[in-house]
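Box 3.1 A note on notation
Throughout this textbook, protein chains are presented in two layers. The first layer is the amino acid sequence; the second is a token string describing backbone geometry. Keep the layers aligned when reading.
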Amino acid sequence: MQSFRFLLQALAISLLLSISVSAVYYEYLKRGGSWRIASQLSILIPILISLFIVFYTPVTSNPVVTVLFYFVSSFVLLLFVGKLPRFKCKTEEELDYLENIPIFICHEKKGKVYNAWYDPKKGTVNITKSLFDILSEEERKAVFYHEIGHSKTKFWDLMTRLTCFLWLLSASTILTMFILVWLSNYDWLDKVIFYTAFLSFLPMYAVSFMISSWVNEHEADSYAVRMVGFKPKAQALIKLHIYSSLKGCESAISAIEFSDSFELDKLSYLQVLKAIIWRVFKYMHSQTILNQPLPETHPPLRLRIEKIVRLHSK
């Protein structure tokens, strides 16, 4: 059966590419060297572009289908833009300069928001008042240097944008193919097989974006560790995770204490692969995609700590 053969090919390609990128990412966590991921992506991205062209070429051969594709693409783009975070400060207070980059404290309009970010347009680092208040002076510096690190990781910022663009294109193309299959004369079994086959192509686009974005965060973490040391950065990450997870229950936290040593259990490749694949499949739920058009942009806390522990131990 042709449709079933197509499904097997789609699953094999997606799994092979996703597993290979995950393996290289694991080596990056253990040994460092972002060039490992860059080399892998230099092979993966042309493959992803080629697959997109394979689907896009027959779509553009029919004027009606072409219009449908552009309509779907516009919908996906509007969904993406509409879900972009639009956090605005009630007031901004200039705090200091680091490496000639101004630091601003952002006073939230309402509620508590634990966040910090680098604004490439203004060339500023911003931290919310709520996050500023829960961190020590050294932890604040770790956060500031992390954000400054984003201004220096321009290659990974570019890779993240490129893989994000490919993700949006692939999602638009696959959604178009879904509609075409639904309108076709295939029997219900063939339709289900084709739906599954087209859907199976999405994980490798999601993985490529996730890994690019995660490495971008890891490299910024590494810069902060080089500037202020391991412990302040680790403590800032853990505090941010705890307070964000317990939002609304902050008053129950009197203090967070850390030991002088961070000893972690051994991290296996299967744990890393599970963390990646689980997040991809969790993200593939239709409601999740509608609420969050992009896969997770930040690596799990465990993997972030693993990376800076390895950097610290060198």
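Residues 9-85+148-248+266-313 form one domain. DSSP finds eleven helices and four strands in the chain.
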